[in-house]
Amino acid sequence: MLKGRAIKLGDNITTDHIIPGRYAHLRSNLPELAKHVLEDADSTFISRVKAGDFIVAGSNFGLGSSREHAPLVIKMSGVSAILAKSVARIFFRNAINLGLPVLICNTDKINDGDELEVELKTGVVKDITNGNQLSFSKIPEIMLRILEEGGLIPYIQKYGDFKLKE
Amino acid sequence: MGKTLAEKILSQNSGSDARSGDIVIAQVDLVFAQDTTGPLTIRQFNSCGFKRLADPKKTALFLDHAAPSPNISISNDHMLLLQFARDSGCSIHDVGSGVCHQIVAESLAKPGDVIVGADSHTVTAGALGAFATGMGSSDVATIFGLGKTWLRVPESIRVAVSGKLPKGVYAKDLALHLIGKIGADGATYKALEFGGDGLGNTMSGRFTVANMSVECGAKVGLFPADRATKDYLSSQGRGSHYQPLSADDDASYEKTINIALAALEPVVAKPHSVDNIALARELRGTKIQQVFIGTCTNGRLEDIAIAAKILKGKKRHPETRLIVAPASKQVLLEAIREGYIQTLVEAGAVILPPGCGACLGLHQGVLASGEACLSTSNRNFKGRMGSPEALIYLASPATAAATALSGEITDPREVI
């Protein structure tokens, strides 16, 4: 069970919003890079975010570049999961590969600052602040396994290969 | 039931009867990373505990996104990639070779291949009938080590293109029109499969359209491998890489989008999203401080030829910088031989070395706050090319050249 506060963002948050190309020279200096997370989407994000918080976004979150640094700096900021109406595919894979859950659900009724509880196993999000409950779409089995291992690297360290079946 | 191109290629490469919705493990024919995603790829490769590449001949690195390096940090990243190539035996395409996707198109991709790059515009090679898609560094690192990856077989959307483009209208206008029509998430997780009698007989436009397919969320933008593919591969000295490839007639598509080319006009994507489409002629009066012609979308010889033709004997507007980056060394050499480079320099252009140039705000044309740029690239996201207060418009090389002359967004039909 994950518990935290919602930080609300809009639709079409691009990888350039999350970590602009102008900071590419910091990609081998992750602590410095992470200071710029989401600064072009919400300049208050970095000062507001606390460990365990959820990003709650609209549609097409993470569109754009393949830069894995985008979910990486979000994870480094302390965010425990991303909830969005839809997510761009490379970002989706990248986030799961880093062990950062991405949950597809209707985020309209979640407000900024709401206290949320997320149960990954049952696929349920509870909004403690307003009493709403919603469910998120099922993640493909292989992605769940990767998530359970904490990401693709620990998954490969453990299994040495992709396992589609037991 | 017949198969789509995506199902055919993934069946072949996974040794299974792959249907949309299935998860398959596919053998990867080419895997690559570039200088902004490569360093993390190498670190993840090492973290996995891999001691060697699955196949050095199928693995490539490219120094293109910031090349030559503009600062010490990126120079250190370049050094890391060069050292990894020496140690592992993979190929490395050094500074000045050009944009990874253009080199993959010219020299490496074949019809029927599965290609994975740590770069979203890896989809460019779909123009050659390759299942080419972008992934992040962790995925690419595991392919470096295992030679394979897992893929969900995508549903396909057929884009049936008919007729011929009118004068002054180009493949870029078709790509932007399509994205405007279906939206920046209109094909998320899907394959776009292009067909119809309007595909034309040259590859340049196909590369542009395949390249832009990720801008509506597509996993891959596939073209059949046909006569045009064969002629292109032969012209690159790779005739033996050709095999005909097309979807079955009775393949099942999620939907079909019909586009009549004759009805298209020059269009522009306005800030800050690629699906924010307007007609170029309606944007007359929009002042532009920088025109950028190049990138994996529109930095090929045909694109530079169009711009040179419009700019020949003329001068750029005094308040509009004109920056041109040929997509590869091959393109640069041909553009020199054809006289296009001289024409462009005489018109007031700055020529950049082959590479990504100004596209991603790292160097060579970084925008100031309040500046507007018209670019032939594929993304106009806020902050993409420098200041988040800059404005980026996307258009064809013809619209770019016409805009460079007038200093404001101009329909190229005014000048050709």
Structure description:
The complex is a heterodimer of chains A (166) and B (416). Chain A is built from 7 helices and 7 strands, in the order βαααβαβαββββαα. Chain A is an alpha/beta fold. Chain A has one domain: Alpha-Beta Barrel (Aconitase, domain 4), CATH 3.20.19. In chain A, helix 5 links the parallel strand 3 and strand 4. The longest helix of chain A is centred in the middle third of the chain and has 9 residues. Chain B is α/β, with parallel strands linked by helices and 416 residues long. Chain B folds into 2 domains: 256 residues, Aconitase, domain 3 (2-Layer Sandwich), CATH 3.30.499.10; 148 residues, Aconitase, domain 3. In chain B, helix 7 links the parallel strand 9 and strand 10. In chain B, helix 6 packs parallel to helix 7, helix 10 packs across helix 12 and helix 10 packs parallel to helix 13. The radius of gyration of chain B is 20 Å and the shape is globular. In chain B, 64% of the residues are buried. The model of chain B has no long low-confidence stretch (mean pLDDT 98). Classes of the chains: A alpha/beta (166), B alpha/beta (416). At the A-B interface, helix 1, helix 4, helix 5 and helix 7 of A face helix 2, helix 3, helix 5 and strand 7 of B.
What tags apply to this protein structure?
heterodimer; A: 166 residues; alpha/beta; Aconitase, domain 4; 7 helices; globular; B: 416 residues; Aconitase, domain 3; 2 domains; 31% helix
How would you sum up this structure in a few lines?
The complex is a heterodimer of chains A (166) and B (416). Chain A is α/β, with parallel strands linked by helices and 166 residues long.
Fraction of residues in β-strands of chain B = 15-25%
By CATH, the superfamily of chain A comes out as: Aconitase, domain 4
Question: Which CATH architecture of the largest domain in chain B is right?
Answer: 2-Layer Sandwich
Overall, the morphology of chain A is: globular
**Unreliable spans of chain A:** none
Order of helices and strands of chain A: EHHHEHEHEEEEHH
Strand arrangement, major sheet of chain A = 4-3-2-1-5-6-7
